[in-house]
Amino acid sequence: MNNYVFYEVILNNINLFIILLLFSSVLHGVIFKNLLYGWLDPFLLPIIANIFCFVVVYILYLTSNTSFYTFLSYNLTQISFFCGLFMFKKRIKFNFSRPVDSISYSLNRSAYNIFAFYFFSIIYLGCQITIYVFKGIPLLMESRLSTFADGGGTGILGRITDVSSIFALYAFFCVIKIDKFRLSEIPKFLILLLIFITYFLSGGKSNFLAIFYVFWCFVFFSAIKKVDYSAYKRFITTHLKKGIVFAFFFVLAIISVQSRDIEDQLNPVLLLVLRFVHSGDIYWYAYPDNVYLQIDSSNGFKALFNDGLGLLRVYPWEELPTAIGIVFKDIHHPSDVPSGPNARHNVFGLIYYGFYGSILFSFVLGLVISFIRNLLPFLLRNNLLNGFIFTYLFLKMTALDSDPMLTLTYVNNLLFIFPILFLTFLLLFEASKFKFQNNA
């Protein structure tokens, strides 16, 4: 089923769609009420996506556009995923509305942290400018995936920008003095502004949220480690409503720029709602008429670890399976543009691991997310590196259910790209200290 046929299904059953949306919202609200750490928790957006995915699958089944087999597979994998999510219990009641707990440590604004902020910021901005020069601006492209589709070295630059941007942002919140404005802080804010502009030019509706999410993770990690975050708490409680309004119009601006085709000339707000509906586009591509059976299911290991096997040259890239989202898109909307829906765990698992294997697969994904959210921060010591590792995994691993292949790409960036950058940072920092001591 292609997009236009599914739109017709919704329009012909608009009352059913609204009822399902309301029911799904209440259901997911009950399920995740005690899982979220607050309204700024980065896991909120994936939950909203799951709300719309539920609606998509149920409306397909209730309108006889998918079989009971796929409908049952979806429900069992979702239940299994939720069971995994609740395996590790919340160990801290964190909310910006709560008083700041007793403080054991003050924030460390050492030369080490400041040097790290400037180093990773320069690395990130330098790589982004190089990408713009050789590949163009993603916001103005028909598909942002085209930026790295042709290789030529930009793929490595994309990996570098992925990890360096998060480290730079985390280091920014470690070194900035947010209680009042200071002229000495202007260079840091200028760099933050440049990073923000690159997020807008990236064309990703949720990319710029990384700034807010990293800030939230920084405060969350500080709360766990008993670091004084009271100034940040006051800042966000004062400016939260402004930030939400700004975020809303920022997303609308990106959508307006990207929707230049005649067929896309719709109200940006309506397009935003449509983007949420498209959280479940993999289901109407895969389930109706059992189209998912057209995918070669013999390479489950290669499909899941596609990026690592290609990055380490275990297999040539051309011998590795194509992302199933791109395959499904080409089945229903053939084009040369490298784009497609996210390979959500229900469909990915059903294709590569079968009916029962997909249930176990979904449980493992939920278990991994639960570990990172509820246990990992308590196992890490309080320093800049560990704070970044927690933040990066906390942000990136929330996508495990929506796109396992892409999430493992992020893991590879952390395992194979970041250590090189961090070692370079350490060498330069030690060299600068040695030079300073000699001059002294």
List the helices and strands and how they pair.
Layout: H1 3-12, H2 14-32, H3 44-62, H4 68-85, H5 111-135, H6 146-149, H7 154-175, H8 186-202, H9 209-224, H10 230-258, H11 268-277, H12 281-286, H13 300-304, H14 306-311, H15 324-332, H16 345-374, H17 376-379, H18 384-396, H19 404-439
Question: What does the model show?
Answer:
With 440 residues, this protein is mainly alpha-helical. Helices cover 68% and strands 0% of the residues. The protein contains 19 helices and no strands. Helix 4 packs parallel to helix 16, helix 7 crosses helix 9 and helix 18 packs antiparallel against helix 19. The longest helix has 36 residues. Keywords: Membrane, Transmembrane, Transmembrane helix. This is Oligosaccharide repeat unit polymerase.
Q: What would the keywords be for this entry?
A:
membrane; mainly alpha; 0% strand; 68% helix; 440 residues; transmembrane helix; Oligosaccharide repeat unit polymerase
Overall, the morphology is globular
Helix count, DSSP H or I runs of 4 or more residues: 19
Low-pLDDT runs: none
Q: Give the strand content.
A: under 5%
Structural class: mainly alpha
- Termini gap: 71 Å
